[in-house]
Design brief:
The protein is 28% helix and 28% strand. The chain is an alpha+beta fold. Strands 7, 8, 9, 10, 11, 12, 13, 14 and 15 form a 9-stranded mixed sheet that branches. A 6-stranded antiparallel sheet has the order 2-1-6-5-3-4. α4 links the parallel β7 and β8. It binds pyridoxal-5'-phosphate. Keywords: Aminotransferase, Pyridoxal phosphate, Transferase.
């Protein structure tokens, strides 16, 4: 069945949805995106995602094409038109179409595209196996741009080895996963994840999960960690908008938490889903 997608003010069947070949998103990856989860037909963590969208756009000298409220309405309308109960909404804003030139055009109109991806998000998780790879991405990973070839290649390298994903390493320390933030739980029970900087994406799920953990008295430390430390850890996990909290059960061939999901990751996943449902808009 064809989806209804949103393109520049119109809701159209996906076969009819088009953007210009001159679009700078296509030519220069001059675009930012967001992915939000939908649970019970409602948008999870919307304020966080829209705030990050505005920041990403601002860092690239672009403005918001819509107000936060209008953008929420587009998300909701897409959910309604596609009768989606659970899944993801992808949103992309590009600088727009202009004759090809490295300099930003002065008067391009931004391109805005949103589409739904229906999929179950809340089932039990068996955990993922990851490999470590050098982080080859650019230096502004805090901006959520669509230049995703490096993480896409890392994901393919993991798949080629029969694994699920890659943890990216720079100067000896894990930055993050290809499309998620990375964590370990030390043998003392402390949750460790890399501190925020331009080296990683400032995950919306990360912020929510760290808040939940702190509220429940779990100790959290934001600092870099190595693959070796992760391999010795009691648990490891990743977070992302549609992955929620997903256990990591193997790192570079070394089983973590006995090769099965650990209790801290499972508990945080339940808590995140529970609070995410309650605050969804
Ligand atoms: N890090 C990277 C590189 C990502 O691509 C993503 C999500 O796509 C995340 C972290 C997690 O961010 P969020 O929790 O906002 O989905």
């Amino acid at each position: 069945m064809s989806r209804i997608v949103y393109v520049n003010g119109a809701y159209v069947p996906e076969e009819e949805a088009t953007v210009s070949v001159f679009d700078r998103g296509f030519l220069f990856a001059d675009a930012v995106y967001e992915v939000t989860a939908v649970l019970d037909g409602k948008i999870v963590d919307y304020p966080g995602h829209v705030a990050r969208l505005e920041r990403s756009l601002g860092e690239l000298q672009m403005g918001m094409p819509f107000s936060s409220d209008d953008l929420l309405e587009v998300h909701r309308e897409l959910v309604r038109r596609n009768s989606m109960d659970e899944g993801a909404i992808y949103l992309q804003v590009t600088r727009g179409a202009a004759d090809r030139d490295f300099a930003f055009p002065k008067h391009a109109e931004q391109t805005v595209v949103l589409f739904t991806q229906a999929k179950p998000l809340t089932g039990a998780k068996k955990g993922i196996r990851v490999i470590s790879l050098p982080d080859m991405r650019w230096g502004r990973r805090d901006i959520k741009t669509v230049q995703l070839l490096a993480p896409s290649m890392a994901k393919m390298a993991a798949k080629a080895e029969g694994k699920d994903d890659a943890w990216l390493v720079q100067n000896g320390f894990v930055t993050e996963g290809t499309s998620n933030n990375a964590y370990i739980v030390t043998r003392e029970g402390k949750i460790v994840t890399r501190n925020l900087s331009s080296s990683i994406l400032h995950g919306i799920t990360r912020a929510a999960v760290l808040k939940l953990a702190a509220e429940r008295g779990m100790e959290v430390e934001e600092r870099p960690f190595t693959i070796e430390e992760a391999q010795q850890a009691a648990e490891a996990f990743v977070t992302a908008a549609t992955t929620f909290v997903c256990p990591v059960i193997e790192i570079d061939g070394v089983a973590i938490s006995g090769g099965k999901p650990g209790p801290v990751a499972e508990r945080l996943n339940e808590l995140y889903i529970e609070t995410g449902r309650k605050s969804a808009l």
